[in-house]
Task: structure prediction
Amino acid sequence: MRLSLAEGVTLRCLEAEDARVEGQGRSLRLGLLAPGVRAVFESLADGGIQETEVPAAAGSDASLAWYWLDLAGDGGLLSWTVEERGNLLMTLTPASASFLRRRATFDALVPLQLSRFAHTRMAAGHAVLDCPTVHATAVLHDRRVVSLLFDMARPTQLARLNQFNTGIEAVTLRELVRLLAETGILVPDGLDVPASEATLTALRQWEPHDLLFHLRSRGWGHQTRAGATYRFRGELPNPPALKPSVAQESVELYRPDMEALRTGDMSFTEVLENRRSLRGRGATPLTVRQLGEMLYRAARVRDVRSTLDGDITDRPYPGAGAAYALELYPLVGECQGLPPGVYHYEPLGHRLEKLSGPTQEFQALLDEARSPVEPFDRPEVLMVVAARVPRLAWKYETLAYSLVLQDTGALVQTLYLVSTALGLRPYALGRSDPDLFQRVAGVDGFAEASVGAFAVSGGSTPAP
Result:
């Protein structure tokens, strides 16, 4: 197994008293190095060194060299590459400073299986294996490694694996399995981390995709670029701040007197304390005036400003980078003064653009808003929240979809508060069929994805 400095890691001031290994967001100060340790780290920086060659390279400083190698490895500064006769099989790299290689845990007699949190993806022409529970990522250079991982989907002893069924020589195979076991990608007894019972109980309740999304959307991984990187600037046009109109027919909506509301509206504390999810219909049906006031107070465009990268807008709810990638699609089942059908809310002109009448998919989406446990009438209006994801992804790398969900939560809460102030019956939906929405709204699901839904029906008149 060959050790080398991880991608993006450099060796600095090797002959001085402040020698150090540095990478993005992590470093290790080595101080004044003994000659043998310096020889080993020079080899790491110059293409790598085989583990079996470390004692000879370090000489009498071998124990000290292994000490610094373990610290560098646990700090996410090293990579391990398994080779067979000069052919690369796999290169494993720590994904964060929480990585830990447990050298004493490997036992060839203990059945091992692939962690349920491990997954493969494609990146830069290679198959890549990620395992967020152990903060490790590996490039799979050889298809035989992929086949090995397939075989390890169920508990398997190393003795049952051989060159005949894997195509990998016995010595190399043991080295490969040992590395995967010592890093926690292969696990005994289905336990993903040798930690406390409380940790195991908590981890058992995570879905693999949820944990991966959680870490990736927080900028997890030394190789991850995250944040406002503007990665498509100069390559792709920035999606417009406002979705271009696609409808021929539109409905102008009521605009409330905001100055009058400042003095006569329900107090903020009363609105906040009265906010509830209220399913079913109220005593009075929803009117187009109430719908217009709710949309105006919760989602209209208050201002448009120009920047070097295009326009941004100002709206009543917060939005990441003022990009405002969310769109509202009211599906009107019953609303006094408004024909049933599918509409798109145009927030700058404060009007509804009619897309279609009540279709079969339209009816299915409204029916889906009913509770399967406690049946009740479907809502009078179902507002699907869609996200023009490229609008955020153009600026934000890795974090875009996480920001979409945060924006959605902010919009839904604002709709809740305004609906409460108006005395309506609102509730948010935990799910809404994205394929049905795509057909109903006539949009490309990748360019504009359904990310939330909010139902509202008429109710009683709000208190003064």
In short: The chain has a mean pLDDT of 88. The two ends are 75 Å apart (CA to CA).
